[in-house]
Amino acid sequence: MIYLLTGVVRSGKTTRLLEWSKNRRDVAGILTPDRRQRRVLLDVRTGSEHPFQVQSKAESVISIGRFTFSARTFEIGRAILKREREADCRWLIIDEIGPLELRGKGFEPEVEATIRFFKNHAPQRNLILVIRDTLKDAALKHYGLTDPVIFNFP
C-alpha cells in the first residue's frame, strides 16, 4: 500500500512520523528533521544522522530556493532507499519528495525506483511518501500514483 502524507510546509509532518516511528522495529527509510535550526538526514532503521542543510559552499552542494543541501547527503539518502527497498520492513518512509525530485534530482532515481518496486513487488508492505500540499498533484502525476491513501496533515 502506498500512503501519501501531505500538508503545508512546517506543519509537523516529519515530527509526527519521527514520533510514530521512534520505538518501532518495522520501519525504515529516511526522515529529514530539524536539529539546531538545520535539517539533517535520519536513517530511520539505524538512527544515524547526517548533516543535510549546510551553510558552507566549500563542499559540493545543491541549492533550492533559500536552502543549501549537501550533495553527499543526498547520495547517502539514495543509498539508504536502495538498501531498504527490498529489506524486510513493514513500513518504508521517504521524507520528502520535493521540487528537486520532480526534476529528477535530489533523491532520484531511487524515489522513482522505490515507488515502482512497491507498486509491482511489495503489496504486503507499506510506503509512506511525504509531499507538501503545493506539490501533491504534480507528484501524483509525475510518479503515476493513481490510488494512494492520502492523509492531509494536520
Automatic annotation (TrEMBL):
InterPro entries: Nuc-triphosphatase_THEP1, P-loop_NTPase. GO terms for molecular function: ribonucleoside triphosphate phosphatase activity. This is NTPase. It comes from Caldithrix abyssi DSM 13497.
